[in-house]
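Researcher: Let's try something more involved. This one mixes different molecule types, so please make sure each is placed in the same coordinate frame as the others.
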Amino acid sequence: MYERKTIPNLNCGLDLIGEVLYGKWKIRLLWFINEGYKRPSELQRKIPDASRRVLNIQLKELEEHELVTRKIYPVVPPKVEYSLTEFGKTLIPVIAALGQWSDEHETRLRDVILKQTVSSDSDNT
Amino acid sequence: MYERKTIPNLNCGLDLIGEVLYGKWKIRLLWFINEGYKRPSELQRKIPDASRRVLNIQLKELEEHELVTRKIYPVVPPKVEYSLTEFGKTLIPVIAALGQWSDEHETRLRDVILKQTVSSDSDNT
DNA sequence: GCAATAGGGGAAAAACTTATCCCTATATGA
DNA sequence: TCATATAGGGATAAGTTTTTCCCCTATTGC
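Model: All components are placed in one shared frame. Result:
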C-alpha cells in the first residue's frame, strides 16, 4: 500500500472531516450504502465511472475510519455486504446538506464548472 | 496552467459540489474569508501550512467558480481583497454543518485517523 | 477445459495536486 | 543601497490518488 510522506494537518475540525471524506468516490459510497446498495458489485454498477479497484480501496478506508462495516458471508460465490455504522449514519445529514445545496444550485454549478473546463472562448469580465 | 485530461463527472449533485470544493484548502479559504480575513497575506497567515502558491491558485479557482470576488486596489504596495459572492455565501451553512459534525466527533475522528496513519502496531480484529 | 460470477489485490502508469525556488514591481525605512 | 512588505507568476519537483492491466480463489454451467 502507499505510505504517506506528509503528516496530515489535524488542526481544526475541517481538517478532520477532510481526512475521512477525501477520496473521489467516498461521499457517494456512503450515500449509496445508506440507500441500501450494500454489495460491492451493486456499488460498482451505481458508480460505473470509478474503477473497481478504487472502490475497494476507498471502502476499506471507510471501514478503517469506522464509518462502514463489512460483513462477509461464507458462501460461494462470495457475498459481501457493507453497512453504515452508527458513526457513519451521523454523517448522512451532512452529506444530505451537501447534496441539497448542489441540487438547489445545479444549473449555476454546471455553468461555472463548464465555463472553466471547456477552455475560455468568451471571456466576460 | 495545468490542463485536465479527464472529463469531470457531472452526473449527480454530489459530483457538482465536489468540483468546486475539492482542493486541500478551499473550504478553509471560504470559511476565513467569511470570517473577515480578506487579504491574501492575512489568509496565508491563517493557513500557514499551505504554500503561498497554492492559496493563490485555489483562490483563483474559487473566483472562477463565482464563489468569491477579487477586488484590486490600485495602490502601492498592492492591495487585494477577497469577498464572498452571494452564491458563495449560500455555501457557508453547508461548511458550518461540516465543521459542526467534526467538532462533535473530534475525539473519535482523531482516533480513527491516527490509528490508520501511525502504522498498525496493534491490529485488533 | 473455458467462461461467467462474485470477491479481492499487486504493479506500474497516468493523472492530478501541492511544494519549492526564483522571478517581477514599488514604496518605505534603515 | 539593501531589506521588507505587498501581490503575483513560471518552471520544476515531489507527493498523492486514480486508473489500467493482470492475476488469484471457488463454483456453476456449457
